[in-house]
Amino acid sequence: MKKTAFALSLLLLASCASPTKDVAGKVVSCAQVRTATTPNLKVIGCLDGSTGAAIKSLRGPMILNVWGSWCAPCKAEIPILRSFYQKAQGKIQLVGVDVEESSIQAGQNFVLKHGITWPNLFDSDSSTRENFGMGVPVTWFIAADGTVVYKMIGPFKNDVELITIASKYLGVKL
Questions:
Q1: Reduced to 3 states, what is the DSSP secondary structure of residue 41?
Q2: I need a surface site. Which of 84, 98, 121, 157 has the fewest CB within 10 A?
């Protein structure tokens, strides 16, 4: 009886512990981001400090997620984007755009802390506001020819929603 009570106590204690697992992120180069050669477009930087890309030169199939480290809904959708990224590698490119940050280091720290491992552009001067408007998260679904085929305003609720939208608008099955 004592052994059973002890085992039950251990089980209850273990179930109360939060199974949080830190996921390490990585500040990734934007060198592999698909773009078209388009002269005279404003190029924004990459979160790794290198040259990034011009927003209007991006080519898909691509999901472009606009976020800020200060944005609670952006933080909430990161696990969904991480899961999607694992499933979509080689089929759909995932690229982030960090906007309205106090510094590049704030964006880099966010990436590292939240397990982001895909390329992220960095809008240091809010020049992309004309493209994305105000408010984040905003996610663009970009076709191979650079056409924005769908815009999602607000955070994704779950993996199924993101996969369904990607399949519908980008024609890629995951």
A1: coil
A2: 157
Distance CA 93, CA 108 (A): 20
Instruction: List the chain domain ranges.
Output: 25-170
pLDDT for residue 113: 96
CATH architecture of 25-170: 3-Layer(aba) Sandwich (3.40)
Distance between CA atoms of residues 112 and 122, nearest Å: 15
Q: Is the peptide bond before 137 cis (omega within 30 degrees of 0)?
A: yes
Q: How far apart are CA 151 and CA 40, in angstroms?
A: 25
How far, in Å, CA of 164 to CA of 174, rounded? Answer: 9
- pTM of this prediction? 0.84
CA angle 83, 120, 21 (to 5 degrees): 40
